[in-house]
Amino acid sequence: MCGIVGYIGTQTAAPLIVSGLKRLEYRGYDSAGVCVLSKDGLRIEKRAGRVKDLESIVDIPSIAGNVGVGHTRWATHGVPNDANAHPHTDQDGNIALVHNGIIENYLTIKKKLESAGYTFRSDTDSEVLAVFIGMLYKTLGNLEAAVRTALAEVEGTFGIVVLSVHEPDMIIAARRGSPLILGIGDGEYLVASDASAVIAHTRQVVYLQENEMAILTRSGFSTKTIENVDTRSVVEEIAFELEQIERGGFDHFMLKEIYEQPITFRDGFRGRLNAEEGSVRLGGLAPVADKLRQAKRIIITACGTSWHAGLVGEYLIEQLARIPVEVEYASEFRYRNPIINQDDVVIAISQSGETADTLAAIREAKLKGATVIGMVNVVGSTIARETDAGVYLHAGPEIGVASTKAFTSQLCVLTQFALFLGRMKAVSAQQGKELADALEQIPEQITRILDNVEPIKAIAHEYAQVSNFLYLGRGYNFPAALEGALKLKEISYIHAEGYPAAEMKHGPIALIDENMPVVFIAPKDEIYDKIISNIEEVRARNGRVIAIADDDDEHIPRVANHVIHVPRTIPMLTPILASIPLQLLAYYIALERGCNVDMPRNLAKSVTVE
Ligand code: F6R
């Protein structure tokens, strides 16, 4: 949700900020803007649209000045237009601010400012903060004090960067609820929403903590709490390479990330899975091993795709470890005063590690005494840091807004977690070995699916113009059906629903006619015959069936209109292999419809607002 870049140093700031914003566009792409401090004051260029739209009308390299800020927006307050684009300034145009988050009490502050005679140019909560800082500066005469005093009154979330003509050799950053990192260069410093915007300049970063401020000058930086208590910052190394955040010859990040899955999946079990012993070593869970052994209940909390992975996790953990599992939308969990006991283990699953609802859910769980584990992709992210222990996904940076490789990595980690718990309980070495062997084969099986995409492209071509899709699966593949439907609606804007296949006759069957394609996930498991009956029910009503089936299934081509074959694996791992053609189907349908696959409308990758 919104990307922020700030720079202070000796280089021309504007092009550097704009190239950082491009890397952050996955966080929002409704409007973009830069502000650079020049000898004539603040020069601000901002427009509705993408960063490249701004570049097409403004000669960015010609903007002189080596202190500046930039912003790419995902609209919360106010439509995406030029006026609502960041940076925003105070009344006199001497202080500029970029903001990621929501100022919940902005109307109260705005009223106060209006009664003091201040006026506003935008509909945003962010401008209110900029004007408020400007007003405070008039009495305090010190930018840091003005920012600090304003933030003390603010309710809500923010990652902000502020600069001012009054104190031109300084930028100030502060965060609460929205991530910010400092990039530590040689005589230059950056601040950004995440490491992708600074890695081209430095690998040394400081993760700003909750309620922390940073004061950056050309000769150094200091950090303190918003309440003005000095803090000690730890410089860390960025955990990925620049190439990993580039498209590398693929048309879209989404496609690149789909094709990375043989590697990312293997990275998820490398050094963890011991196929000989049928066991798993998850070093990150060592601090909570006893709590896990004694856990009476596991609650998985997450949003979106990560929540779907959590549903598969429920089946896996209950099957292997025989511990009751509940899967909760983080957004619901946090607000309904959930019953949480001290011997509960709460697992937060998140690609970004910054999702506001998931973060709030784990804070609630910690407050109530539960042990909280993170399954997170982004190293050093807020959820990773706030959990008691965790397992990283090791999927590498995921840029495409539609999550793909993170999902399969989540399933990889959840499977190992279930085996890890299971081996503490009733799962034998032999059972563990069978599962581990099957898991080790997955990367090569994914490669085989990726080597044969023509049938998927043909199906995409045939169904690209329909208005609705139904996705059905049972058992482990019910969540896979939900995930397939989510992928399609996100990037192609076709309405799609996922259902447990057996639920179809309790309602959705009314939708079936010759215009309704139904995707069935139909591996040969213990409920295969039931799925075949469901397929027959759809065919009997002239529905069009696209089946994802095992490559040795000779029966299914006789009942389905189209079959996408995937290699055979054990039932527990079938949602992993099924998700690959579902991702590809969504991708190719979106392409057929001319949609912007990497930046679907209204979405942003990292949902750091409620
Ligand atoms: C779907 C998608 C979203 C995210 C959700 C949670 O493709 O990407 O549904 O899964 O916003 O995000 P994380 O996993 O970062 O917490």
Describe this protein's structure.
The protein has 610 residues and is an alpha/beta fold. The chain has an eight-stranded antiparallel β-sheet with strand order 3-2-4-1-10-9-11-14, with helices on one face. Fructose -6-phosphate (F6R) binds next to helix 9 and helix 16. Fructose -6-phosphate (F6R) binds at residues 303-306, 350-352, 355, 358, 402-403, 486, 490, 606-607.
Give keywords.
Rossmann fold; 6-stranded antiparallel sheet; binds fructose -6-phosphate; 8-stranded antiparallel sheet; alpha/beta; 610 residues; 19 helices; Glutamine Phosphoribosylpyrophosphate, subunit 1, domain 1
Can you lay out the helices and strands and say which pair or pack?
Blueprint (H helix, E strand, L loop, with lengths): L2 E6 L4 H11 L7 E8 L2 E8 L2 H7 L9 E7 L14 E2 L5 E6 L5 H10 L9 H16 L2 H11 L4 E7 L6 E6 L4 E4 L4 E4 L11 E4 L4 E6 L2 E6 L10 E2 L15 H7 L1 H9 L3 E2 L4 E2 L8 H6 L2 E6 L1 H18 L3 E5 H4 L10 E7 L5 H12 L3 E6 L5 H5 L2 E4 L12 H20 L4 H22 L3 H10 L4 E6 L3 H16 L2 E6 L16 E6 L5 H13 L3 E7 L5 H4 L2 E5 L7 H19 L18
Parallel strand pairs: 17-18, 17-19, 19-20, 20-21, 22-23, 22-24, 24-25, 25-26
Antiparallel strand pairs: 1-4, 1-10, 2-3, 2-4, 5-6, 6-7, 7-8, 8-12, 9-10, 9-11, 11-14, 12-13, 15-16
